[in-house]
Amino acid sequence: MIDYIQDKQRLVSANRILARENVVDAFGHVSIRHSNTANQYTMSRSRSPELVEFTDLMEFSLDGTALDPGERVPYGERMIHGAIYEARPEMNAVVHNHSLAVLPFSLTATALKPAIHVGAVIGEEIPIWDIREHFGETDMLVRTMEQARNMTVAMGANSCLLMRGHGAVIAGRSLKEAVMIAVYLQVNAQVQTEAMKMGEPTYLSSTEIELLCETQFSPLAMDRAWEYFCVRAGVDVV
What we know:
Blueprint: H1 2-20, E1 29-33, E2 40-44, E3 57-61, H2 79-87, E4 93-97, H3 103-107, E5 128-129, H4 131-135, H5 145-155, E6 160-163, E7 167-172, H6 175-196, H7 206-216, H8 219-233
Parallel strand pairs: 5-6
Antiparallel strand pairs: 1-2, 1-4, 2-3, 4-7, 6-7
């Protein structure tokens, strides 16, 4: 139980970090799988990530049912998180954001690819999912488990997925990993966009991606990055 309290404190920090790094703004959310109960997850009530406090955190079953709602209103798109936890038992944290640097790649035929060494963590392939192709004209929000499960099929075994004209979904084996991927997905998108103005970028090879991920996801690199992100966000290093 003590460890899970620490997990929840880290989740509050993750909200603040993603806001500080401009990955999320008034909208977007991050969750963690319950470390003691695999069929539950934790995320904030519906609140802007920069403002999330410990008392905002709520518990959910994988179908999005709030287990301790009280007077709190949950995020409408929490089904994104539950569907990924349901389909991907190896994943323990999920981020959904609307990064302005990433969004153009969801609207065009230009693929977002890992181009810089820290960008290797986004993975070799980033599929695009269009809710309109499967569910017709909607408000583009993923409000049902049917929609979220369809999205998860498109995501496959990848760490990232783009949602046409909407945003991105990132899954990680840990909260630190998911935050790192979300941050560097945005950084890679920014660098790739600038590089394309000069010519055709040279992208990372499959072997480079594999080797760089081993480095970036090592405890040494992960803890160093997490400390940096926490200090920038003004939160305790938990």
